[in-house]
Amino acid sequence: MNHHRATALLAAASLLALAGCSSGSGSTAASTSSASAPATSATAPATSAAPPSAASSAPAPASSTAPSVAPSATAAEPAAKTTITVDCEPAKTQKQLRADWEADVKTFQAAHPLITIKSVDTDPCVNPATFNAKLKAGQVTNVFYVYNTDAQDVINKGQALDIQSYASSIPGLSDIIPAVKGVFQKGGTTDGDLYGLPRKNYTLGLVYNRDLFKKAGLDPNSPPTTWADVIKDAKAISALGNGVIGYADYSAGNTGGWHFTAEMYSQGGDVTADGKTADFNNAKGTAVLNNLHQMRWVDNSMGTKQLLGYDDLNQMMASGKLGMHIGAPDQVQRDHDNFKASYTMIGMGPMPGGASTLLGGDGYLFNTKDTPDQVKAGLLWLEFQNLTPGQGQFNYARASAEKAGVGLPEPAIWTGDFAAQDTAAKDKYRTIPAENFAPYVTDTPKLKGNVEPPNAQAVYADLDKVMSEVLTNKNADIAGLLKSHAASVSKLLVAAPKPPA
Asked: Is the separation of the CB atoms in 397 and 61 below 8 Å?
């Protein structure tokens, strides 16, 4: 895959999406679990160009849980009774999301009596450490979840089914942002054969606790936009004491490498300049690690508990003990659903630094052993659950009635009519204060959007070691770490699977 070409396509599509969406565009009504987990790439951003109004934050009454937008003509039906397995069913601990999923399966099967959906409970939806082994052993479901960073690798290895011959039957396919759809096309280009469909996308920014900002004497409507201000505000927040931490970051489970990459982007740098050689052993890489060292060891604003993984930051934020961390809007949903965080407590600003931010997402591919009827059944399910305004994950009427989150500024999957329908429905049923995300919505479009590096999961695992060393060793050799890991990451980049000719 030509990552420079993909980035150019993405940047163009992202700007169009941002300019064309209103303040309500983007979020899902019922996020399943790890939408913004480390390991996603090449999606459009999840923000809008115009700041939301405070008046739009009040939830509208939800008199019905029926879809607010009628579905369009659907993809082809299977010819005979067909059963498909689908993963990424919400975990039992996510009681409402699980109930909504099960209700959607029941509704879908009633509308399509030839199809039986067998859901597979997975949380997180992908474990990077075992994903490739499951693929190789043929243990993935008929319709299987994939991080965007993994999609091209899977396609290039022949581990997903080419579904291009079914593309003309998929309603709304032309309304999907080209760069978002391109993630699931051969070669990562908009003219390659289709292998799957998107579910979500995200843009990283700064998640922060508005209550702690107020207590620390900071303006909750003006989160920091530079790393110098992040450091200053983290120190002020940690000075509150009582176990409060100003800023936290990842350093385990591939999440540390994911955030190191994002923080390189925020400095105007990159992990790789050409897709083949590491490009972080420089002043920008040094700045990323020096910022962390300052907060961890000099200001003591990051706390002593380190080697944090994905949900650690969610738990800390929801507990009211964490001031700031890098994340995506869907993490706010997870904070609320899994850890009982108040929507009014959490705000978001743009990625600090003013240069770039990291884009990502996820979706589904098809098992190479699928029959034609299983492909048809899978396309119908994905259309219903993930790609129709007012249905499935976009059933805002239901979400509002359940007092779930409606109004997060992601994902921006569509352009055109589908985007307009989604925006209107979201604004009608909004439950999340729009003003809490105004800084993010206003300023994110000003940043360059970067996709993730080739062989991203392996790169992230390697860079976890850089993050963990700096955050657990006061005397870490920053220059030595950057030099040695630039060499090891360069080897991983060379080893990245290439698109077939």
From this structure: no
